[in-house]
Design goal:
448 residues; mainly alpha; 12 strands; globular; sphingosine-1-phosphate phosphatase activity; hydrolase; transmembrane helix; endoplasmic reticulum
């Protein structure tokens, strides 16, 4: 077509060209995405959708620390034209790759979900590919050990050890502070709903915590309250190197905190808030510990008060949509605290708690070979007893709950409160009660 001697471009092509030009211009002028994380203030602080950037709340900081210690994302599989997959060196799964994969429903995530980067079939079996590369194995194993200091595995290790060989005076105070701090920390996660670092750029190694929110870090809280409670409870009552004790406590806390960054499960701000919150709670609780401990040991109705208070807190726990990922851990913690404190109450009624008014005192030194062997045997007995009681109680309760509520027990029904509360609370109540009653009775009979 011509008009006044000049060709006229068809209208549809002109519109298309205009759209194309505008689109490319928008893409070119679009500012690059900021690497630091954005968050939205929780609704409990006022209904607001305004995004705010916080210091120490940056996923790139966590990613840089991971790279410093030799942790990198695994190379991404690239599918070639012949249908075979290959790996590209030095690349990681970006948002486009993550979007095409199956992503679990996550509470504590901002950005692309950290799925396990798909899976492949090998010889007829499904194999999960490795989604990270640890170039420095020493750091990997050190921080993996540090991460276990706040897990359930560590609880199964420390409580039999405390029942067999550690100071009961310090253990009771640690258990009280542990229960209070952990309940506040776990409930705060559900109230705040602040996410964990996104993947990418962070490589997240603990997939089982994806359903939990991140603020505050309860690992940091446990890593602070346990060593410093034992340190404070023994400071003026036992003879040992206070400098060495303070150094060990600080090293314990730092190891746990750095392990959470290395694992890619928390921002720096999560850890700072966790440690600070624990220190504040300890300062408020510590002056009342002697009064609380004396009531638990001596009052005739103390077990009723302990159990009823714990059950009430479990029922009132703030959960997301009725089923929270942190609620199960909270019920487990409250059941453990109830079992330990009720066990000490029973031992006091039996005349087996010599440190009601004050700790026994004495010098803390490295044991000889004979004493170390006895300590190891006592710990082994307590550990075996804990495993046997746990398996037996768990099996009986699952059968009883299925009959009482006429429901099938599976992974879905276990998350219901009327199943989860008796199943978890009673299991760990019975477990820790037997551990702190049977073990001391046996050791007293044997004279060890």
């Amino acid at each position: 077509m011509y008009a006044h001697g000049r060709p006229v471009r068809p209208m549809n092509n002109l519109l298309l060209a205009t759209r194309t030009y505008t689109t490319h211009r928008q893409v070119e002028e679009k500012p690059p995405k900021r690497a630091n994380m954005k968050m939205t203030w929780p609704k409990i602080f006022g209904s607001s959708s305004e995004s705010n950037s916080l210091p120490l709340y940056d996923a790139c900081t966590v990613a840089r620390l991971q790279r410093f210690f030799g942790l990198y994302p695994a190379p991404s599989p690239v599918v070639s034209k012949n249908g075979r997959s290959s790996l590209t060196n030095g690349t990681s799964n970006g948002p486009s790759a993550s979007a095409s994969q199956d992503k679990p429903a996550e509470n504590g995530t901002v950005g692309p979900a950290g799925s396990e980067h798909g899976s492949s079939l090998k010889n007829g079996s499904r194999v999960k590919p490795k989604y990270y590369v640890a170039h420095n194995k020493w750091w990997f194993y050190l921080f993996s050990m540090g991460a276990t200091l706040g897990d359930d595995v560590f609880y199964f290790m420390i409580f039999p050890m405390a029942a067999a060989n550690l100071s009961w005076w310090a253990t009771r105070r640690m258990v009280i502070i542990w229960g209070i701090c952990m309940y506040i920390g776990q409930a705060s996660k559900e109230l705040l709903k602040w996410p964990r670092p996104s993947e990418p750029p962070v490589v997240r190694l603990e997939r089982r915590y994806f359903m939990e929110y991140g603020m505050p870090s309860t690992h940091a809280m446990v890593g602070t309250l346990m060593p410093f409670t034992y340190l404070a409870a023994t400071w003026n009552h036992y003879e040992y190197s206070h400098t060495l004790g303070a150094l060990l406590a600080c090293s314990w806390t730092l190891l746990v905190c750095f392990s959470r960054l290395y694992k890619g499960m928390h921002f720096v701000l999560d850890l700072v808030v966790g440690v600070t919150l624990t220190a504040i709670l300890m300062l408020f609780i510590w002056p009342w510990l002697d009064v609380i401990d004396h009531f638990i040991l001596t009052h005739p109705q103390a077990p009723l008060v302990i159990i009823s208070s714990a059950v009430f807190l479990c029922i009132c726990y703030p959960s997301q949509n009725g089923v929270a990922a942190t609620r199960a851990d909270t019920i487990t913690i409250l059941g453990s605290v109830s079992g330990i404190l009720c066990g000490f109450w029973f031992l006091h009624r039996s005349g087996m708690v010599p440190d009601v008014a004050e700790p026994l005192g004495g010098a803390i030194a490295w044991p000889g070979w004979g004493a170390a062997g006895i300590m190891l045997l006592k710990y082994a007995f307590s550990q075996v007893l804990a495993v046997v009681v746990y398996l037996f109680t768990r099996a009986v309760l699952l059968q009883a709950i299925a009959v009482i509520f006429n429901t099938e027990i599976n992974e879905n029904t276990k998350k219901l409160l009327f199943v989860e509360l008796p199943y978890r609370y009673i299991t760990f109540l019975v477990l820790l009660f037997n551990l702190y009653v049977v073990s001391p009775l046996v050791f007293a009979k044997l004279g060890v």
